[in-house]
Design goal:
Strand content: 15-25%
Shape: globular
Helix content: 25-40%
Distance between the termini: 50 Å
CATH architecture of the largest domain: Alpha-Beta Complex
CATH class of the largest domain: Alpha Beta
Number of domains: 2
Largest sheet: 9 strands, mixed
Number of strands: 11
Number of helices: 11
């Protein structure tokens, strides 16, 4: 009996501090063959050097004490791009894009590469600040789907630091404001059953499996969002291909490590506020144009709420993003000139 095969795309940007936990956990996957593509969006830290030192065995890996599950390090050396790992059967390939063109830009590079490999019909997009139990990949590769196929498949994303708490089971869209919501957020993992996939509007980009049929039918992700709402937009283009849910697709996520996304204990960073609300208003202009005034009103109210809590920089970034204005300097300075050209010129264009 042949082993099921699953493509994996991990987009990195300044991910040196988290990428090894992700890769070691993927390499521990059982009952499946993984073709893992690490797509590096011109990291400005030492992500690529960390990968090389780890793969060669020069930097021995030790699982962190707070890892939510037992993890045995893979045998080294590991070839990056020239064959299967002899003991795990998985393969890792690194793609250097040379540009931080945003999340979808990196995902699309991985999709383009994986789609050329015959025998891979499911493409798993996974955040680099994640760790996965050994059975998760097999669950995604073998989960039953409707006869007509599927568009996107999700599972349960749990907080890495509080592994008993759900971050998201799937996403909903507020049809008045374009605000997205996480199903299951903050609830106890053991107390919540799997959601009905028919109730979902989208699958989180932190852990999302796309079918080849869907990719070939609707094409790649929209890159002009730069960050946020790419997966929401993609899901709404699915036409008659349903969303599906894999109960065994468990992922532990270190939320907010790269761009300062919100956690249960703090609001999003100015960088995250700017891009999330700019993307939300862009999404509204495309998909629900009549709701634009309500979406803007939400932004103003949300900014006022942040001000009252003392988060002045976050509020200012939120408003600048919502009105599609150039970002505050502290947001602009987090990107190099090439990335800024993509993010704040092309990515910032209104419809």
């Amino acid at each position: 009996m042949s082993v099921p095969r699953l493509g994996v795309i991990v987009v990195t940007f300044n991910s040196a501090d988290v990428i090894l936990d992700c890769l070691e956990s993927l390499l521990s996957s059982k009952g499946v063959r993984l073709d893992i593509y690490i797509v590096d969006n011109a990291s400005r830290d030492n992500t690529l050097q960390v990968l090389e030192n780890w793969a060669s065995g020069d930097n021995p890996y030790q699982p962190p004490q707070d890892m939510p599950f037992h993890l045995k390090p893979a045998i080294k050396p590991i070839s990056l791009g020239s064959g299967q790992h002899p003991s795990t059967g998985h393969q890792i390939t690194v793609i250097e894009t040379g540009l931080n063109g945003g999340f979808a830009y990196g995902v699309n590079a991985g999709l383009a590469a994986l789609s050329q490999i015959a025998g891979i019909d499911r493409f798993w997009v996974l955040n680099p600040d994640s760790a996965v139990p050994e059975q998760t990949a097999q669950a995604f590769a073998t989960a039953p789907v409707p006869p007509e196929g599927f568009s996107l498949m999700g599972g349960r994303v749990l907080y890495y630091d509080t592994p008993e708490i759900i971050q998201i089971d799937g996403g909903l869209i507020n049809t008045k404001t374009g605000v997205t919501g996480n199903i299951g957020l903050g609830k106890q993992h053991k107390d919540v059953s799997a959601p009905d996939p028919k109730s979902l509007d989208f699958i989180t980009g932190a852990s999302m499996v796309a079918s080849r049929k869907f990719y070939e039918a609707v094409g790649p992700m929209e890159e002009n969002y730069f960050l946020y709402y790419e997966e929401v937009d993609w899901a709404l283009r699915r036409k008659n291909l349903p969303l599906v849910y894999c109960a065994g697709g468990i992922v532990y996520h270190k939320a907010g490590t790269a761009i300062g996304s919100p956690t249960l204990g703090r609001p999003a960073s100015p960088f995250s506020q700017y891009f999330k609300h700019r993307a939300r208003l862009k999404f509204v202009r495309i998909w629900m144009k009549s709701r634009y005034p309500a979406a803007i009103a939400y932004s103003v109210a949300k900014a006022g709420q942040l001000v009252l809590k003392g988060y002045h920089r976050e509020a200012w970034a939120l408003l600048r993003g919502s009105f599609n204005r150039q970002p505050p300097l502290q947001v602009r300075n987090l990107l190099d000139d090439a990335a800024a050209e993509v993010a704040f010129s092309k990515g910032g264009k209104s419809e």
